[in-house]
Amino acid sequence: MNANAEDPTELPTAHRVVLLSRDDRLFHVILAQQFDRELIADLCRLAEMLRGIAEARPGAQFLRTLLGHKRAMLYFIQPSTRTFLSFAAACQILGMPYNEVRDPRTSSEHKGETEDDTIRVLSQYFDLIIMRHPGEGFAESMAHMLSRMRRTIPLINGGSGKDQHPTQAMLDIYTLFRSLGQPLNERPKPDFSGNPFEGRTIAFVGDLKRGRTVRSLAYLLCRYPGVRMLFVSPPELQIGEDIIEHIGQQNVEYDTHDDLRAVIGRCDAVYMTRLQDEWDTSGESKSIDYDRYRLTQEMAESFKPGLVIMHPLPRRQEIDKRLDADPRAHYWDQVRNGMWMRAAIIATIFHVDARIIDHYHSYYAR
Q: N or C: which end of the chain has fewer CB within 10 A?
């Protein structure tokens, strides 16, 4: 690490990515920028293999032998349902025992222990820390702290403040690969090495300023030439200038709008988000009219036939529940896809991906 840089988050992104790797492989998973197209394709293929192997009891039993000798800590001190259970299920698929801390009042932090020391202590008991924390940059700082310790273990960012959510972005792009351009009600057979996003319009809708899932997915989509992004939100909740700057540097076409109804017919995928009012400092979101950023059943006549409707969940009223049964609704698929993608990421970190690939080709590829 650069001795002159006290804060690793201030380093150039390319340098930060290198510092988070080991031997040119994933180690800490902190930033969406760590995933290039080759790695995205590899992880999507691995997730497909995992779900194929696990369909039969012998395959599921094989998977549970892979990481039974490792232990994971789910340090989730920010409320979570899907991300927590998704990682828990991913650990179980791979046979990895896990423990959890979900309320710092039940830990020594209640006695005054610093969060840094809590992470140091956890690193002595466990082989992996999966963290969800409200502080921006905290997960990355802790990853670098662990890298400097005598016993180094990987850390996965399960959501950090309003900044990044890299594993959510990976399950989102995996869902898009499996859904875009596929005939409705048919099992997709995607080419993960291809570019299904060329000529496609992906709309992000809602609270984009404070939505870390949107930020992370936008970074990944910039890997694919020819994609177009629409950012549809109230002006005061529009996507951050840093994301716009990055998109511009990657020569990706984009536009901003303030009315979903006006653009829905142009969209190949729409990524809905809720109002992130937990980040309000003085109730400022109460004055925002969110009706123009809701997807309704009445809009369905304007949908493209293969529209992919997504949402990172939880939702409020931004998606009409009558759309839940529409085959174009893929937000429940996202939930399940997340379990397989996170298992693929954990398997890759611990170098058991090759065993999964060999097993798949030996018993299931045919």
A: C
What rounded mean pLDDT belongs to the chain? 91
Q: CA 181 to CA 242: how far, in whole Å?
A: 30
Q: Is 50 exceeded by the pLDDT of residue 3?
A: no
Give me the residue spans of the domains in the chain: 8-164+336-363, 166-334
Task: Kindly indicate whether the domain formed by 8-164+336-363 is annotated with CATH number 3.90.420.10.
Answer: no
Give me the pLDDT at residue 249, please: 94
Is the pTM for the entire model greater than 0.90? yes
Helix (H) or strand (E) holding 234: none
Tell me the C-alpha distance between 319 and 328, whole Å. 12
Amino acid of residue 79: P
Contact 127, 70 (CB under 8 A): yes
Q: Do domains 8-164+336-363 and 166-334 have the same CATH topology?
A: yes
Distances (CA, A) of 275 to 83, 172, 236, 286: 18, 19, 12, 10
| CATH hierarchy code of domain 166-334 | 3.40.50.1370
Alpha helices in the chain (DSSP H): 13-19, 37-53, 57-63, 82-93, 115-125, 138-147, 166-179, 212-221, 241-249, 260-263, 331-349, 353-363
Tokens of 207: 């609270």
Give, to the nearest 10 degrees, the angle between helix 331-349 and helix 166-179: 120
Strands (DSSP E) found in 280-325: 308-310
What is the DSSP track for 67-90?
A: STT--EEEEE-S--SHHHHHHHHH
